[in-house]
Design goal:
- The protein is an alpha+beta fold.
- The longest helix is centred in the middle third of the chain and has 24 residues.
- It has 18 helices and 19 strands.
- It binds adenosine-5'-diphosphate and magnesium ion (MG).
- Adenosine-5'-diphosphate (ADP) binds next to helix 2 and helix 3.
C-alpha cells in the first residue's frame, strides 16, 4: 500500500504539532469533538432535506473512550462520515480556514500563538499522538475506509470494515517522557473536565464510560465499581440558558470557544425576545480591534441558527456596517432552515431581528458610556473610527443613531467628551460648537485660530482624525447648536467694533495685501486683515465649506 505525502502547508502545521511544546495540549480533544459534532450536523441537515432518512435524536452521539492497556483514546461519532475521496481531501490537506495564511515564519516556528488562538483542527491530534487511525464510513457509501498516519511519514488509506455510517478517530498516545506525561488523557476525571471546559454546548450527547460505585446487594453494605455510560456535556446551548444561571466567565468561555477574538469581550448582551419575531442572541463587543478590522478583508456578521442548527456562519445582514465589530450568535425558531442566502436577504423576520439587534447594541453602548466610562473609552479607541464612518455613510441617514455615541477631545477637559457634555457646558451667549482640526492635539492647541475662541473661555473640540471633520459636517449641528470651525471666516464672536477695525485696516493696507496676494498667487485666494489674531502675526483661514484638513484628505482619495 502506497504511503502518500501531506501537502506542503499541511506538513508545516503537522511538524508544528509534532514538536509542540504548547502547554494546552488538551485542546486536541475540543477539535476532534467539534469535528464529530460538525459531522452530525451535516447528517441532521441531510435528513431534513432527504425524505428517505429520518433523524432519530437518540441515534446521534459522540463517544469518548479511553483504553488504558492499549494507551489509546477513541472519539467516535455517528455523523456523516467520509468517502475515500473526502478522506483524501479533508485529512491530507490543511483546512481552508487559513489560520496559517497571515502568520509570519517566526510566529509559526514558535507555534504558541497559533495553537492557542486558532482552531487548529484535526492535526492537533498529533500533539499527543504517535499514530492516528481513522475508520470512517460515509452515509452515501457502503464501503468503509481506514486512514492512518504517524504524522511525519505521510498517510495511508485502505478499505476497511465498519457497520454504521460515522467516524472513529483512534489516537495512540505518545510514550511518556521525563517532561511530558500523556497518561492524563486516559484518566476519566481529566477527560471529563476537558469535555466540560471546551465542549459543554455541543448539541449532541458526548458519552463516556464512567466508573461509579454501586451497592453489591440489597442491603447496600458493600459497594463495587461498575462502568456506566454517562452523558458529560450539558448540551443546552448557552444562549438557551437563563441569564441568571450564567456568569461573566461563561460568556467569556463561549467567546473564546467560538474564536470570536483573541481578547476578552468588553461587554455582552444576552437577549431572549418573545415578540412578533422570536429569537435568542448573544452579542459581544470586543475589547481590541481585530488585526484586519479596517481592511477590506474583514467580514462582518453574526452566526445565524435556526432552532439550534447553524444556517450561516457570518450573516452580514444582521449588522449595520457601523456596528460591524459586534460578534455573536442569533438563533430563531421563526427562520426556515432551508432558506437560501438570496431569500434570506429579503426575509421579513430577519429584517425585524436586524433592526431589533441594532437598537439593542445602541442601548448597550449608551449604558456602557453612562455606567463605565473607562470601558467605553477603551471601546471607542478601538471602534470609534467606525462609528464616525457610520455618521457619514448612506448620506448621513444613521446620524441620529450615532451622535450620542461619539467622543471628541476637548480643549477644556483635556480628555474625550460627548457632544451632550460639551453643549451642557456652553455659556448662554455661545452660539456654536467650536472645533479645530490638525494632526495632533498638541499641534491643534498651538494653532493661532484657536486663540480667540479659547480666550473667550469657550471649549473647542480638537479633531485629529481625518474622518472627524467629515462626521461633524454630516451632523451639521447637535442639539440645535451648529458646528463651527475655528478656521472659518466668521466665528460669531467678533464684536462690531472689531469688524469695523478690520475693515479699516483692510482699506489702509490694500496695496500691501494685493502685493502679498500676487506673490502667493498659486497658494492663497485672498489676503485679509484680521482682529482674530492675538500673539500670532498670521494664520490661514479656509473659505467656504471645505477646510484645509479636509482638502488634504480629499486630495488623497482615489478618484
Ligand atoms: P475544519 O473542522 O476547520 O474544517 P479540521 O482540520 O478539523 O478542519 O477537519 C478537516 C475536515 O475533515 C473537516 O472539514 C471535515 O470535512 C473532515 N472531518 C474531520 N473529522 C471528521 C469527522 N469526525 N467526520 C466527518 N468528517 C470529518
Ligand atoms: Mg475542525
Amino acid at each position: 500500500m502506497a504511503t502518500k505525502q501531506f501537502q506542503a502547508e499541511s506538513k508545516r502545521l503537522l511538524e508544528m504539532m509534532i514538536n509542540s511544546i504548547y502547554s494546552q495540549k488538551e485542546i486536541f480533544l475540543r477539535e476532534l469533538i467539534s469535528n464529530a459534532s460538525d459531522a452530525i450536523d451535516k447528517m441532521y441537515y441531510k435528513a431534513l432535506t432527504d425524505d428517505s432518512i429520518t433523524f432519530n435524536q437518540e441515534d446521534y452521539y459522540i463517544k469518548v473512550h479511553a483504553d488504558k492497556d492499549d494507551r489509546t483514546l477513541t472519539i467516535e461519532d455517528t455523523g456523516i462520515g467520509m468517502t475515500e475521496e473526502e478522506l483524501e481531501n479533508n485529512l491530507g490537506v490543511i483546512a481552508k480556514s487559513g489560520s496559517l495564511a497571515f502568520k509570519n515564519e517566526n510566529e509559526i516556528k514558535d507555534g504558541h500563538d497559533i495553537i492557542g488562538q486558532f482552531g487548529v483542527g484535526f492535526y492537533s491530534a498529533f500533539m499527543v499522538a504517535d499514530i492516528v487511525t481513522v475508520y470512517t464510513k460515509s452515509a452515501d457509501s457502503t464501503q468503509a475506509y481506514k486512514w492512518q498516519s504517524n504524522g511525519a511519514d505521510g498517510y495511508t488509506i485502505e478499505p476497511a470494515e465498519k457497520a454504521a455510517a460515522g467516524t472513529e478517530v483512534i489516537i495512540k498516545l505518545r510514550e511518556n517522557t521525563e517532561d511530558e506525561n500523556y497518561d492524563e488523557f486516559l484518566e476519566e476525571h481529566r477527560l471529563k473536565s476537558i469535555v466540560k471546559k471546551y465542549s459543554d454546548y455541543i448539541r449532541y450527547p458526548i458519552k463516556m464510560d464512567v466508573t461509579v460505585q454501586k451497592p453489591k446487594d440489597e442491603e447496600e453494605k458493600e459497594f463495587e465499581d461498575v462502568q456506566e455510560e454517562q452523558t458529560i456535556n450539558s448540551m443546552v446551548p448557552i444562549w438557551r440558558k437563563n441569564k441568571s444561571e450564567l456568569e461573566t466567565e461563561d460568556y467569556e468561555a463561549f467567546y473564546a470557544e467560538k474564536h470570536y477574538g483573541f481578547d476578552k469581550p468588553l461587554t455582552h448582551v444576552h437577549l431572549s425576545v418573545d415578540g412578533a419575531v422570536r429569537y435568542q442572541a448573544i452579542l459581544f463587543i470586543p475589547e481590541n480591534t481585530p488585526f484586519d478590522y479596517y481592511t477590506r478583508e474583514y467580514e462582518k456578521g453574526l452566526e445565524l441558527y435556526s432552532n439550534g442548527v447553524l444556517i450561516m456562519e457570518k450573516c452580514a445582514d444582521l449588522l449595520p456596517d457601523y456596528f460591524s465589530f459586534v460578534k455573536g450568535i442569533v438563533d430563531s425558531e421563526d427562520l426556515s432552515l432551508n432558506i437560501s442566502r438570496e431569500m434570506l436577504q429579503h426575509d421579513r423576520q430577519l429584517k425585524m431581528i436586524a433592526k431589533n439587534i441594532k437598537n439593542k447594541i445602541k442601548s448597550q453602548l449608551k449604558t456602557l458610556l453612562k455606567e463605565d466610562r473607562e470601558k467605553y473609552e477603551t471601546f471607542f479607541k478601538a471602534f470609534g473610527r467606525q462609528l464616525k464612518f457610520g455618521v457619514q455613510m448612506d448620506f448621513g441617514s444613521h446620524k441620529d443613531d450615532l451622535k450620542d455615541l461619539l467622543l471628541f477631545y476637548s480643549s477644556k477637559e483635556k480628555k474625550l467628551v460627548t457632544l451632550s457634555e460639551y453643549v451642557s457646558r456652553m455659556p448662554e451667549e455661545q452660539q456654536y460648537i467650536y472645533y479645530a482640526t490638525g494632526e495632533s492635539y498638541d499641534r491643534i492647541e498651538k494653532l493661532p485660530q484657536t486663540e480667540m475662541v479659547l480666550d473667550k473661555g469657550y471649549e473647542i473640540l480638537y479633531l485629529n482624525e481625518d474622518i472627524d471633520e467629515f462626521a461633524i459636517k454630516t451632523l451639521m449641528s447637535y442639539d440645535d447648536k451648529p458646528f463651527k470651525s475655528v478656521a472659518s471666516g466668521d466665528l460669531g464672536i467678533e464684536s462690531d467694533e472689531d469688524q469695523e477695525k478690520e475693515k479699516e485696516e483692510q482699506q489702509d493696507n490694500k496695496e500691501l495685501f494685493e502685493e502679498i496676494k500676487n506673490l502667493l498667487s498659486d497658494k492663497v485666494k485672498d489676503v485679509r486683515a484680521s482682529k482674530r489674531l492675538k500673539t500670532h502675526p498670521v494664520c490661514l483661514a479656509a473659505d467656504g465649506e471645505v477646510s484645509i484638513e479636509m482638502e488634504k484628505v480629499l486630495q488623497q482619495m482615489p478618484d
